[in-house]
Every structure is written in C-alpha cells, then in structure tokens.
Amino acid sequence: MAILNILCIDILLMDISLQYLVMKMYWCSYGPEDYRDSESNLSDSANSKPSSGKGSRPGRRHMMRGCLCHFTVKRLYTRPLLALIIYNQRNHVDKSGAPCHGTRDRDSVGTRAMYAPRISDELRQKIMSLLYVGISLDDIVQHHSDVVQGNGGPHNRDHFLTRNDVRNMGRVIRNSSHELHVDDGSSVKMWVQRHQKHVFFFQENLGSQSFVIGLQTDWQLQQMLRYGHNGYIATHSSFGLKKLKYPLCSLPVFGSSHNVIPVAWVIASSYDGQNAHKWIGALVGRIRTRDPRWRPNAFLVDDPTFDISVIRTTFQCRICLSLWHVRRSWIKNLYKKCCNFDVQREMFKTLGRILYCMRGWPCVVDEIEEFMQIFIDQSMFVDYFRTCWLPRIELWVSAIRTLPVASQEPYAAIESYYLMMKAKLLKELHSNTWSRVDWLIHTLTTEIHSLYWFEQFTLETEYFRNTRDGSSANNSWYRAVHIPDVDVLLDEENLQLAKVISQTDRTVAYTVWNPGSEFSICDCTWFRMGNLCKHVIKVAMLCKIRQVARPLLATQVYRQALVNLMQNPPDDPIVLDHAIFHLTRLQQEVKGLVDMSNSGMLLPLTQGDKLNFD
After folding, report:
1. 292: burial class by Cβ within 10 Å (0-12, 13-18, 19+)?
2. Eight-state DSSP code of residue 580
3. In sequence order, what E strands does 439-554 have?
4. Could you tell me which of 69, 70, 66, 71 has the C-alpha nearest to residue 95?
5. Which has the closest alpha carbon to 601: 260, 347, 315?
C-alpha cells in the first residue's frame, strides 16, 4: 500500500475541563478531491484549479484520486506525549468503495499512482548526504539511473527520482539555517520538537539542572547495532572544551576498515563524567528496544571521572582505559615547550613511569617531585604539567591500576576522527557561531553525519570512490599496515631504537626510540605535532610479532594487581568467598583480554603476563 504523505488541518477547540484540545486531521495525499474524470474533459476544465485546498497547489492536481483514507489525532497541550488516534476511514478507497491508487487499483497500473507519492526517507537521506559532501546534481541523477537499470528497471516510487526531486532537496539545504530563534536556548528547543526521533535524551538548563542533549539519527542507530554488537565502543569526550559553548562527547564504534563511525553525540554544559549516567541508560535502552540481545565486547573510556560501575552495569561488558588524550597532550606540549630532542625523549619516558607507578600514591608524589627537580631547567613544560595535570594525575594513576589499557590501533582511529572534527568545527571561519549550541547540533546532524554516511557508502558499494575524502586512509594504523617489513631496521639485541625507511623518499629514515613501548617517540614531523605516527605503530607491530619487546608498563600493572589478589587472600571466610568469586570473574576477564590483545584492540600481553589460574 502506498505510503501516506500527510496534509494537516489544525482545528483548535476550547474545553473547560480539558483546557486546550488540539485536533489534527490527516488525509492521504491522493485525496479527498477527485480529478480523474476531469482530466479527460475539455482542456479549459483540466487547466482550472480550485481556489483553495490541496488541489490548488502546483503539481498536486494529478495526485487527486478521491482517496477517503484519513484519521484524526487528538491530544492535550498539558499532556503532549499522549495522543488518541481515530481512523475515520482506514482503507485507501474512493466514494464508491473501490481502491483508487496503489497496486490494487487497475487504473493505476503503469502510472505513479501505483507507488508512494513521495520518495522514501532512506533515499532522501542518501540524496541529502550526497549533496552535503559536494556530489553534483548530474552525477547523482546518473548514479541513480545506473542503479535502477542495474536492478532491472523501476519498481517503486524511489526509482522514479527526477532532477527536480534532487534540485528541490538542494534548495532545502541552501535555505536551511541553524538559527531557528534569536535565543539559543529557544532555538535548541524548537529543533528538538522538530527532530524528536533524532534525540534520545534532552534536559534543559534550569536552575541547578545542567543542559544535556543526546543525538542519534536512524543511520547511526543502525551502525551501532551492526558494529557495536560484539564489537568495541569508545568515548571521545571534552572536544571543543576551550572554544565551543559546551564540550562535545562522541561515542564512536570501530568499522571494518580500522576507521571509526560516530554513533551518538552528547552535548552537556557540565563537563563531569559522573553525570554520564543520565544519558547512558537512555541510549542503551533505545538500542535494546531494537535488539534485546545487543551487547558490546568492550567499552573504552577516556575520562577517569566516568562512573565505571554505571557503564559496566548498563552495557554489560568489560571496560578499558584510553590514554590517547593524555599521550597527545604530553607529546604536543613537549615539542612546543622543550627544544632538545634527547630531553624530550627522557621526559616522556619518565612521565610514563609516573603514570604507571605500581606503588602507593605517596610514591607517585615522590616520583613527580623528582621529575620536576631533574627537569627544573624545562620550566615551561614543568609549569604546564603542574597547572594542567597535577590536580588530576591521581585519577589517571588510579584508573590505570584498575582498568586494562587500550592499544594503539583504536588510538589511531580516534585520532583520525579528532582531526576531522577539528578541521570541520574549529575553523576560525565558524568562530562567530561557536557560542551557539543550535549551530553545533545542526552541523553534526547534517554535514558531519553526511561525511561519515558517505564514507561508509563508498566503502560498501564502491561508488564515488574518487571523490571520498579518504578518512580511513588518513588513519595511521591503516598507513602502517602498508609499510613493508623489510623497511624496518630493528636490532633485536639492542632495543634502544629502530629505523623506518620513508615510503616517499628512500634516502630518508626515521628513528623510533623505545620501540614496542607505549611511550615510543619518533622524529618525524607528524609525530612532532602530537599525532600517533605510522612509524611507531609499524615498529610496535613487528615487536609484537617477533615477541622481542620488553613487558609493557600497562601489562605489568594489571599483572601485579592479579598477583597481589592471589598471594594475599583475606582471612575472613565471607570475604574469602567474595574474593574467590572475583578471582573467577578476573580469570574470565583475562581470557577476554587475551582475545582483545590478539585482535589488536588491547596492549599486547607477553607470555609471562598470561597468568595461569588453574
């Protein structure tokens, strides 16, 4: 049966007991007027149009086939979430009771009346995304024609897409604006009312209540169901903290090409991971409404203030810690505030020892004081570390002791996502709109959404491959895979450094110090900008394959925690039973972590780190 495209007639009625009652009547697009007979009459009659109503609109006359299907929706202003739907006529028939359009109407055979009067939401999303990424009208129409012919010719309304359809959608894009109201808060509320199916959580900024909005389109929901189930979900929090009105938190999943796909966005006025429980439950509830069996394999957090117990209980999966943000910030500021490369290398290694310190907090404080004394001449970086990291370093050290640390593979994908978001949202061109949340919402759900939709579309269908931006190709992990092993000079007897021959200039070789370590450092330009370079990743791959790298600091910390639990069992029988229960759970956890390590999502475990619990 054809899909309805609705005409709405608003009627306001006053009721003393119910206050204002809104009654809306919805008619099928093929009715209620009937101009089928008039089309065969005189041309003057055929060219005449009613003075008002649906038939008066240009291009609507051919659709009027007398369909009487309509229903009424009644709701109260005081309770807008409740509605009563009353079908006055459920069947798509005319006044004679015969089908007047669709596949059951013989007179509709061979005409558009056989199909829906409008293109589907799926095709509309596709065309809008192609327009947003810059595909021309001619290319879109030609591509659609090729697809239809390849499927054996037209079979539904979507197959009758015209240039005018594409032109109209392009006009909608050009005329769209993020500013629905002068006041930003009112504009956001208007957007939420118009796009409720794209909002999984909304909380206004009232009194002590902070502003929170969670965004997820239908396509993002599908990707979360597809790649999140038995896969990995990450958080990329606090994006735009210094420039945007409110920071952005993204939830990406990892696709099939070592790339990330943002499946949800959360904008909140309060930058506090403890408030995440407000929207996490709503998001997971939305997913499990579609698939009750949906469950990820692991969840990567990049903020130690997140309530880990809430995430573990809600997602029902293991939790891993992402140090990408810490690593990037330290490297970027080391190269900016310290000029000597040898000093940079030693400072980075010392910071790693502080972060992975296995002793108590007083020992960590001693390590920090010693670090500041040794590198007292590097006052710019020491001041930066004291101001930005000293107040929260204890949170990170504590998190590393209790959570396994993710590997460089997801870091590379997250970094690629960050760089793309930075290029699209934090350009000075948009500085006048950074203070508005409605602009951020509009940009995310249109331009950014279209970019990732297009990326997946080209990967899956091979169409428009020459026009994609290649964000997955910009992923350092993806580029590292294409470096031949013979181009890596690694002395297994002396693991102080490794050499990687440049793929563009064979006379140049880049040096990687501390190869195989989570605190490796490279002298290439890309690494000096704070990024994770392909040379570090390639060397780490070879060290893992050849099993020549020293035990990682993260693995040693996690191993020591398990050893302490086994070597120091509690005396109390009740506490002992509780410890045995947790030890059994940890045994399952370690087996799962070994699988994650083998898949590249977790820092590799050496043979000495895979404990025998039997």
Report:
1. exposed
2. H
3. 488-490, 497-501, 509-513, 521-522
4. 66
5. 260
Helices (H), 473-572: 476-481, 525-528, 534-546, 553-567
DSSP-assigned states of every residue in 58-82: TT-GGG-B----EEEEEEESSSTT-
- 182-218: b (≥16 Cβ within 10 Å) or e: eebeebbbebbeeeeebbbbbbebeeeebbbbbbbbe
Maximum CA pair distance of the chain?
A: 101
State the angle between helix axes of 393-402 and 341-355 in degrees (0 to 180), rounded to the nearest 10. Answer: 60
Here the tokens at position 364 are: 């960590």
Cα torsion angle, 186, 190, 193, 195, sign: negative
Q: State the burial class of residue 121 (Cβ atoms within 10 Å of its Cβ: 0-12, 13-18, 19+).
A: exposed
CA distance to 119, 134, 209, per residue, from 124 (Å): 7, 16, 37
Q: How confident is the model at residue 198 (pLDDT cuts 50, 70, 90)?
A: very high
CB under 8 A, 24+ apart: contacts of 50-56: 54/7, 54/27, 54/29
d(CA 184, CA 204): 12
* DSSP line for 556-570: HHHHHHHHHHHHS--
Angle at 270 between CA 264 and CA 274, to 5 degrees: 75
Confidence at 3, pLDDT banded by 50, 70, 90: very low
pLDDT digits (tens, 9 = 90+) for 209-258: 889 999 999 999 999 999 999 999 999 988 988 899 999 999 999 987 77
3-class secondary structure, 104: coil
Strand order through the sheet with 70-76: 7-15, 19-27, 70-76, 84-89
Bigger pLDDT: 393 vs 553: 393
Q: With contact defined as beta carbons under 8 Å apart, do 371 and 342 qualify? A: no
Residue 49 has pLDDT above 50, yes or no: no
The amino acid occupying position 55 is G
Mapped onto helix, strand or coil, the DSSP state of residue 99 is strand
Q: What is the DSSP letter of 54?
A: G
In this predicted structure, the answer to whether residue 466 has a pLDDT above a threshold of 80 is no
Are 252 and 260 within 8 A, CB to CB?
yes
Q: What is residue 33's predicted lDDT score, i.e. its pLDDT?
A: 80
Give this prediction's pTM.
Answer: 0.76
Q: Convert the pLDDT of each residue in 12-27 to its tens digit.
A: 444 434 444 567 788 8
Are the CB atoms for 238 and 303 separated by under 8 Å?
Answer: yes
C-alpha 51/C-alpha 57 separation (Å) is 10
Q: Copy the structure tokens of residue 65.
A: 């086939």
Confidence of residue 51 (pLDDT cuts 50, 70, 90): very low
Distance in angstroms (rounded) separating the CA atoms of residues 296 and 229: 5
